[in-house]
Structure formats: structure tokens, C-alpha cells
Design a protein that fits this description.
The chain is α/β, with parallel strands linked by helices. It contains 16 helices and 10 strands. Helix content is 38%, strand content 13%. The protein is globular, with a radius of gyration of 21 Å.
Amino acid sequence: MKHPSRAQLNPALLRGLTRARRTGAFALPGLTRRRTLQAGGAAAAALALSACGVGGQQRDTADDADYWADKEETGSLRWANWPLYMDPDRTQIEQFTEATGVDVAYREDVQEAASFFGQIQPKLANGDDIGYDLITLPNGFEFSKLVELGYLVPLDHTQLPNFANYAGEIYKNSAYDPGNRYSVPYTSGVTGIAYNPDYIDREITSIADLWDPEFEGKVGMFADPQEIANFGLLLNGVNPADSTKEDWEAAAEKLKEQRDSGVVRAYYDQDFIQPLTNGDLWITMAWSGDIYQQNAEEGTNLKFVIPEEGATLWTDNLLIPFTSKAPVDALKLMDFLYEPEIATGLTEYISYIPPVPHVQEVMAEWAEAEDGTERGEALAEMVESPLVFPSDGDYQNLHNYVALETDQQDEFSSIFQAITQS
């Protein structure tokens, strides 16, 4: 199917691309996709931990080669996504429906990856409909489990021409899903280092700066085992995706030294932004998109760096469960979101890294067209931001998470939770 150019789209829908990122009743200062994960509190955390141990009946995937042979478009689909991952008017969904005639029931039902997996896993194990034809989940433990148990449909890339034409090369052959057999990225971000220059008067360049006794009690680290493990591994010169158990143990020792030295103020889930802004933290592990949004929305001057040892690239992915009632429609939507104009609208709202490099060029055109307006200035600033559009050099210094089989996940987690939860 040939997707519409911007000129072919309904002007009312195009106006949706110019809306402020948060307006009116939807204004949620300081709240981002990653920070919404904190909202569930202790109950959600307990559910997430229990879900991590969920096993499952492995599906026989012998017939996957013929999966798409008899599949046809249905005219509707159900999509489970994270909160704040599309504007409140669902502009891109409206554009998709106008272009294809396919209706989308869009639900912000993914609040936390592990608990969502715990919700859908029993149904998938029984071969039952989970209520969604398309889901958005990050690379990580739950993604690995879904693949290993055979719960995801292998994608038909003949139906994804926009992905083939416009996806960045780094998003086409990840360590967690080689060849994009089961997934295409929705959006992405970097876990790096942020610091507040009001309290630190030197340039931060290294993961080792998080161990500096000069910052005693003012360092923030992430509590998530995968996130904190990556920094310990990178500091030791190890590529996380290629690491071994011996590497994990060595990284854990390094992180234990950091904890015992007293430099770490706390291990954070999502709520590191406010302490960094007000000076309770001076330097911390951080997500690129959150720092960009805080600076753009609150007028702060927080700095974000990809350290010289490297940083990690996380990706939230579009996946089709094998019980989907509308897999062809889901593929159409996946591909539609890779049309550069559509991807640009999403990026303007989300302000994380788009998997479509051409978005930067399109956004620059939009900024020029609206030169002198508040929106034009905001777009121009975003176009120049390495937090939204990393350079080729930045990408070369980004790594995937540790690749783990399901039977390794508990052991891996316990090694690093012994540091953050003691």
C-alpha cells in the first residue's frame, strides 16, 4: 500500500502535528513515559517481581513458516501501549484510519513490563485471546520470555516496506532480535549520565565520575538490575551483550565498592529528575528523553552525556502476539508509523529517539515553515538536540543490554539486586 504524503492527508489531521506536546487538561509537568512506571507503587512492584518468575508452556512454532498464508485484513485492531506515548487526540491513529480504513482501539494498558507480562502470559500459554493484536514492550527480560516461549508472531517483512526503506541501520539488526524477526522499534532512548552544572563545575565524561568521592552522597544510580549492570560492565571494559557470568560478578564487585564508599545517595526507579533539579543529586544515571523534556518544559539546564566507556540503547518495540485476531492490520500500522511524516509527528510529542533518521530532515522543514513561532523555535531546538537525534559517533558508542536466556534471568538479577536492595 502506498501511504499518503503530507499533502494528501486531511488538513485537520495535519494540524494535529502542530499541537503542543502537553496542553490543557492533559498537562502533566515532569511526567514522562519512563517516569509513569513509578506510579503503581509498592503493589505494582510486588506484582512485577512475581511476574518475573512466571514460567510458561512453550508453543510449538513449527507452523510459523505458513502463518501468514491465510491471514487477511479485518478492518480493525486493538493496541496496548504505554501512557503518554501518543498525543491525547491520537493524531497518528486518525491518520492511519483515514489512510487505510482500519479502526484502532488504542489503550494505555502497559504500565510496567513485568506486570503486563504476568497479565498476558497465562492466556498466551492457553492459546487464548489476550485482548490485543499489537503490544508495545521494551527489549529485556519479558521480550526474551515471549520469544523463547513462542508467543510472538514472526513478522512478514514483505509487508513492511517503510521499515525497510526508512528504519535506521542500528534498528534493523539488534542483539535482542536479530533481523527484526519479531519486532520493530516504536521509539528508543539512551541510558547515560546526567548532571546539574549548578553544582558540578567540570565536564563529566566518564562512568568513573559516578564513583568520584568528590560527589559523596550526591550520586544517583538505577535500581533496575539490567540498567545498573550495564554501567558496571562498561566501566570494566565489557560489552554488555557479550558478557558472561564472570563479567557480571566482576561488575557487581565494582558496584559494591561504589555503594560502600558512600557516594550513592539512592538507587532510583524513575524518580531521579526532581532530586537532580533541586540539588539533592548532583550526578546520576539518566534517560536521555527525560532530561530533554525536563529542560524543555521546566527551563532547567541539566546536562546529559554518553560517557567515553559507552552507554546503553533501550528500545520499546511493537510486537504481534500469536493469538492476534488482526495480524495483517497490525503489520499495516507498524509500517505506517515508519512513514517519515508520521514518525516526525510522534517524535515531536514523545521527544525520545525515533528509529527513522529521516525524521530530523522532516522536522527541520517543519521548523523552517514555522520560523518565528513558538512551535518553530521548539522544533528547531529539537532538531539540533543529540538527546533526540544522536550523531553517528554517539551511536557507535551505544550498546545493547545483556542478552539472557530465561533460565539465566533470576541468577543475573540476584547478583545486582544484592547491591541495590541491601
